[in-house]
Amino acid sequence: MPATADYLAIDLGASSGRAVLGAFDGARLSLREVHRFANGPIELPTGLHWDAHRLFGEVKHALSQTRRAGVTLAGVGIDTWGVDYALLSAAGEMLGPPHHYRDPRTRGMMAQAFRAAPRERIYSRTGIQFMALNTLYQLLADQRAADAQLSAAASLLFTPDLLNYWLTGIQRSEHTIASTSQLFDTAERAWATDLIDALSLPRSIFPQAAPAGTVLGPICAEIARETGVRAPVIAPASHDTASAVAAVPVIGNRNDWAYVSSGTWSLVGREIPAPIRTPQALAANFTNECGMQNTIRFHKNIAGLWILQECQREWESHGRPYTFEELHALAAAAPPLAALIDPDDPPFSEFGDMPAKIRAFCRRTRQPPPDSDGAMTRCILESLALRTRAVLGTLESLTGRVATIHLVGGGAHNPLLCQFTANAAARPLLAGPIEATAAGNLMCQAFAHGRASSLQEIRAVIAASFRPIRYEPQDHHAWSEANGRFQHLDASPAWPLPFRGA
User: Fold this and answer.
1) For the residues of 423-457, what is the DSSP string, one character each?
2) Could you tell me the CA-to-CA distances from 41 to 97, 351, 410 in Å, in that order?
């Protein structure tokens, strides 16, 4: 076995994708991006979908780039967002483009599910947060619409499973991605077949699921000829958040830390050894998703940088494109804690004119709307930080005191968000690695080959390879006062408490 192994992580997010080469010498991991591309939904007469064929073309292009770079790969691993799936025929053909999780077809599906299986039963079997976008409700929407694809389906593959199948010809899922469905028992690491039956869903379509770090098989001959790459395909922690959490740079056996995986979504939680499926966890709507090496990611999904991304898209359409540095400078110069929003207010989760939605929320809550793009950016970042503080408080009530926050992912590249989160939470925050998902994916592949023996060893490698930036909390009084205002946010017209200075 060579001293240094080269792996390729293909990390697909809801707004962009990237292919990252990782060279691992046994002690440190170095990264090199070889391909980056935009991703997003496509609007069809049947709703909001993903262009899976285009994504597979990007995967093949990434493989070709490694060949052109003269790199011989030891493995390839794909991670993506959760919950979305494709349905395949008995012949292995995709029956239609996968739906996007923001497609509105799942409205009302929770109520339908609860008629067949009460909320308490679903949570006791799966431990998964109730969100209308979950696979469970998407399948019920297919069922209600008498969708021909569902009745004809022989198998269901989540997004990374589908791409792996097209690379290898092997249909298999992986624990971390399967657990996002709300149809998977995260304690037993198996499909909750009794729940699937109660919901009248076809249990035969759910694929065999394997643990993170499973070698699936070689790239099939046709794709190898097309790309010039012959390498094993490995299922890393296929859910992008699971790979990111695997890359949190914690040394030793400390368990007094929480993670914030910050990207399009923000996930606030901690790693635990077994699911917490108590009435208190259900009431708080926390999720128990599978992590690497039989761990559980106990966290809550909240709105993330999606809100800012949508604002940037709107500003660009009006002739005001911003670089990251320009937007950061404008936000830093704006007045602090002037107006706040609840990032999880339902309108913010949908496509549309996001700046207009923010202004409308502020008017409904008797706040002066942000009067510039910089002020609006600051409003978003400060509100995300305060929402993180609120979730962190609930997390502590369920699991115990958190001493340090590790913020990983794209948000670690935003020093204002990092400082605001440390301020709001009133505790130190360690930011990085930015490419945590790719790093975790790569090290899961190394683990599959025995080059890392445990999750603890993976994290030691990450800590040695990427030094996090430390943020100490500041301005305690101002943020404490802002938190009091944030807790009383109510977007209804009858909200009686004007903000100070409004």
Assistant:
1) HHHTS-EEE--TTHHHHHHHHHHHHHTTSS-SHHH
2) 11, 11, 20
| Nearest in space to 429 (alpha carbons), one of 299, 292, 260 | 260
Tens digit of each residue's pLDDT (9 = 90 or more) over 69-118 = 999 999 999 999 999 999 999 999 999 999 999 999 999 999 999 999 99
Q: Do 61 and 140 belong together in one domain?
A: yes
**Same domain for 217 and 312:** no
Using the structure block, give the residue that is written with the tokens 């604002």: 311
How big is the chain by its Cα radius of gyration, in Å? Answer: 22
User: Is 496 among the domain residues?
Assistant: no
Rounded to the nearest 5°, which phi and psi values hold at 189?
55, 55
The string of DSSP codes covering 144-170 is HTT-HHHHH-SEEEEHHHHHHHHHHS-
In a domain, 273, yes or no: yes
Query: Can you give the pTM of this predicted structure?
Result: 0.93
- Of the candidates 6, 11, 185, 240, the residue annotated as catalytic is 240
Domain end residue (candidates: 224, 241, 258)? 241
**Within this chain, do residues 428 and 358 fall inside the same structural domain, yes or no?**
no
Concerning whether 51 is annotated as a catalytic residue, the answer is: no
| Residues found in the chain | 502
